[in-house]
Amino acid sequence: MTETARRIKILIMIKTKKVLSPSDFDNNYNVETQIESRLIRLKAMRQLESKNGFYYVKSKLLLHIACAFIYIKKTILGIK
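Now predict its structure.
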């Protein structure tokens, strides 16, 4: 999840009153579940594969795109 997506999710959770205090995030914001769903999605998209309990990058397309965005962010936008 990108930082922007996290911020938007937090704002929506607060607006819909699913979260009223920081302790409410424990019930509504499960990081493990989010990571597991992302891994399942990446495997379904054939970007990852798992063997013997380890994940391996199968297709480097998204990886190259992510690296390009990091490069643009650091060099052109000057954001660290």
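The beta strands are 48-51, 54-57.
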